[in-house]
Design goal:
The chain has eight helices and ten strands. The protein has about 240 residues and is α/β, with parallel strands linked by helices. Strand 1 (about 5-10) and strand 2 (about 15-20) form a beta hairpin. It starts with a strand and ends with a helix.
Length: about 240
């Protein structure tokens, strides 16, 4: 596969080699040496196009190092927004959200989409049938909510996502579990009611968990961001043909 796509999020890095929109094996790294990890991916195989989406700005030195190891480097970070603004993506959106929008436009042409990304934050973005961006929201992600309860209400224990919950709890633990999970379910359902004709797309680490709890038809695309980045890489491949 000729291209390499990389998504650097708030807590982890995900990467995959791609050929068109087809993704290969997904690599995941969580640590402080992300530039070294990227260099390890391209130490033997030189990508034709490398697309890096990052919530943090890529340093000039790292940019130069990456550029030497690929045919064409596309950076999508707070300092590099040109590609996204040219495609109707608002300047304030993070590049991973932009990639999800681009992938949804491709997968569901002619349909409006409600895109939910379940990560450190829960991001919700809406597009119209013509692919135009209609706005979106950000709220704390599932594990972030559990951590916040423990941090700001010290008498409450730190819990993780439970396998099952009821609508209401009957002790301290089940009350926290049901409060967080049911609260997110009600939040999601509220958005779905506002845009009933939209295709619903879930992505991110907890996508499958919440999709199983929904009554609405849901499309779960676990690597939606990487697919969007792969589409961006193909733009540059086609330009060089």
């Amino acid at each position: 596969m000729a291209n390499l796509v990389i998504d650097i999020g708030n807590t982890a890095l995900k990467a995959s080699w791609s050929d068109g929109v087809t993704l290969g094996k997904t690599f995941r790294y969580q640590g402080e040496k992300m530039p070294d990890f990227i260099m390890s991916l391209i130490s033997k195989d030189r990508p034709d196009v490398m697309v890096i989406s990052s919530v943090r700005e890529i340093s000039r030195q790292n940019e130069e190092n990456f550029r030497k190891r690929c045919g064409h480097l596309v950076l999508l970070d707070p300092a590099h927004r040109e590609y996204l603004t040219e495609r109707g993506i608002p300047d304030y959106l993070s590049s991973d959200r932009a990639a999800s929008i681009i992938a949804s436009r491709y997968l569901f042409r002619g349909r409006g989409c409600s895109i939910f990304d379940f990560g450190t934050t829960l991001t919700i973005d809406f597009t119209g049938p013509d692919g135009s961006y209609k706005g979106g929201n950000i709220s704390p992600g599932c594990r972030t909510r559990f951590k916040a309860l423990n941090r700001y209400a010290r008498s409450l224990p730190l819990l993780d996502t439970p396998e099952k919950t009821e609508i209401t709890g009957n002790d301290m633990v089940s009350s926290i579990e049901s409060g967080v999970i049911s609260g997110m379910e009600f939040e999601i359902q509220g958005y779905l009611c506002q845009f009933p004709d939209n295709i619903v797309v879930f992505t991110g680490g907890d996508a499958n968990y919440f999709a199983k709890r929904m009554k609405n038809p849901i499309f779960v695309v676990c690597n939606l961001v990487l697919m969007g980045l792969a589409l961006m890489a193909e733009d540059y491949v086609e330009e060089d043909l």
